[in-house]
């Protein structure tokens, strides 16, 4: 298994649950829960009947030499890839007035009846705001208890190993859904080598099968579908693994119409990814939205983002900037060069207000 990712600003040490939002209190299970047998083979819990949470924890610790199922997942996961990680202290977010139609499309899909499929694929070139949309949706769904998990790939920060994806998703789901965690505890008891299996097996046994059991045995614990977000899939270092993840998700969505998980994937429109699903395959399976670079909405969003940004700078440096700063033609020049790329506009604003130089007017003239 690959080594843990390294970023320029490593996160502080914290329990796994510190990286994710809490789910609504209605999803918390009673203190006493049944242990579900999920394997036809004999296992150390095969004859178990009922345990309190305290007894279950002690039993699990005995099985795993003092290490809980969350710690097992943490060893193979990348918590710094989650939307709330301290390693992503300043992630891109949508301004309230940008990408409004696109965000509304995602929310409407996420809150819908599933008739358009349980998969939403947002495609677009670099810097058009895909990650900002993914971050904003993660935060909004997290606040309502509808976010199941997230994984933000980042090649510059070396968060690009496909083997981290499923353990990271399972870790977040386990910290939010108690009965899901107990099912995983049973799985690890019966199959302690599960994290050494291939991604297809892990996807089935750590993500799909536990929720199938929850639907069959404890449907009352599921309060609406949970959204799982994979952002920057094209930044995964293995192209074959990128296609495999698309195939795993789309195949499950196509074969199982009703299931408590929804999937949002954001990526560049790479040909090898788009060829994974034909246009015919998308019908009734996946809602696909391709963001154009220089469409009218994108140009308007860039202008609004720049205006809001320079207004903030003006207020901060009100005693040092001349009246009417910046000249209107400068904003139009930047808007024209940005060509609808919100990422470029955000970069320009950060450059202008760089605290190291502390000279926004001088930076604007560069």
Automatic annotation (TrEMBL):
Recall the taxonomic lineage recorded for the source organism.
Eukaryota, Fungi, Dikarya, Basidiomycota, Agaricomycotina
Q: Which domain of life is it from?
A: Eukaryota
Q: Per its UniProt record, what PANTHER family does this chain match?
A: AMELOGENIN
Keywords annotated in UniProt: Repeat
Which InterPro entries does the record associate with it? NPHP3-like_N (IPR056884), P-loop_NTPase (IPR027417)
Tell me which Gene3D superfamilies the record gives: P-loop containing nucleotide triphosphate hydrolases
Question: Know the name of this protein?
Answer: Nephrocystin 3-like N-terminal domain-containing protein
Indicate yes or no for the key word Repeat. yes
Q: Which residues form the Nephrocystin 3-like N-terminal domain?
A: 107-268
SUPFAM superfamilies, per the entry: P-loop containing nucleoside triphosphate hydrolases
